[in-house]
Amino acid sequence: MARRPRPARLPALTPSSRPQGQQRRRQRMNRYGAQAQRHWQTFLPNRYAALIADGTDLNSYFSTLGEQAAQQIDDLARNLAGPDPTGEGYLDKLGRLNQARMAAEEQVLPELILIDPETNETSPTATQSPTAGPQAASGDWIPMVEDPTDPRWQEIAEQEAAMNDDSEPPARS
Fold first, then answer.
1. Buried-exposed string 68-95: b where 16+ CB fall within 10 A, e elsewhere
2. What tens-digit pLDDT sequence spans the chain (173 residues)?
């Protein structure tokens, strides 16, 4: 069988040989940076709009934020995983390292990437009028409680009993 000739290699582009407009390469965003940008667009629109209004390069900002998060997660995961125990098998080590990484992400992501919108943005329920309903203010939370005296309670209890094959539904008190 005859060998095909190799195609000629293209010369590598050095900063001085790049065409005009390609001198500045955009910083590549990691998954944490992309996750932060999506989260901020959706749940922190005021903060995201402030970045745009300030003329911030969003790609650079979220790339840097993602790199910070990745570094903190790596450092924390390394500390949580600790040293390798003697006699630890491959799957045991894999599980230990994965668990440490997940725990590190659980601690770091809410601080840097998935910031709680309720504490950092004006929530729509806080801007409603006081007569808008029982949940007009965030401090007026009303818990849902089962009330056996409610007429629908017995009906729902009977349906659940039928689904669970119980002999009889709970009695009304």
1. bbbebbeebbeebbeeeeeeeeeeeeee
2. 566 665 555 454 444 444 444 444 566 889 999 999 999 999 999 989 999 999 889 999 999 999 999 999 999 999 999 999 999 999 999 999 999 999 999 999 999 999 888 665 554 433 333 344 444 444 565 556 666 777 777 777 788 777 776 556 566 55
Cβ atoms within 10 Å, residue 66 = 23
CA 14 to chain centre: 38
Are the beta carbons of 158 and 147 closer than 8 angstroms? no
Q: What is the pTM of this model?
A: 0.54
The encoded tokens of residue 73 equal 């997660």
**The one-letter amino acid at 52:** I
